[in-house]
Specification:
Blueprint (H helix, E strand, L loop, with lengths): L1 H9 L1 H35 L10 E2 L8 H6 L4 E2 L1 H38 L9 H13 L1
Antiparallel strand pairs: 1-2
Helix pairs in contact: 2-4
């Protein structure tokens, strides 16, 4: 069973998947930073500095200045602003990933087209041809 597991781990697909997960985690940090540090401030400036995360409705009694205060008090809060922020972040991330994948695919297609257009290299004489030439030279 240990040998089967080692064989499974050593396969290329598993290694490719592991590399993909590691790169994906690093890419996620970059995209999150881009959204929270670059794009959300621009969106906030367009909408008058509104921060949607603090939009909520208390389900029950009580008045709270912020969603955090409501949660600390144990009040049931319908936090539609946090959900709206998550949806906006998802859409921004989806667009960024779409554009990235689109550009990578364009680069791959250009490389494949260039490879197809390149003339096939002349392989030269085969081993059999060389042996026939040697045999004929020795026969003379």
């Amino acid at each position: 069973m240990l040998k089967e597991f080692q064989s499974f781990i050593a396969k290329g697909n598993v290694m490719d998947m592991a590399v993909g997960i590691i790169i994906g985690a690093a890419f996620t940090a970059i995209v999150k930073s881009m959204v929270s540090d670059l794009l959300n401030p621009i969106i906030g400036a367009i909408f008058g500095g509104a921060d949607f995360t603090d939009y909520f409705i208390v389900l029950g009694e009580g008045e709270f200045a912020s969603l955090e205060a409501a949660r600390e008090a144990g009040a049931a809060a319908f936090a539609y602003g946090a959900f709206l922020t998550a949806v906006i972040n998802f859409l921004i991330i989806a667009v960024v990933v779409f554009l990235l994948v689109k550009n990578v695919n364009k680069i791959k297609e250009a490389a494949a087209k260039k490879e197809e257009e390149a003339p096939a290299a002349d392989p030269g004489p085969s081993e059999k041809d060389i042996l026939i030439q040697i045999r004929d030279s020795l026969a003379k």
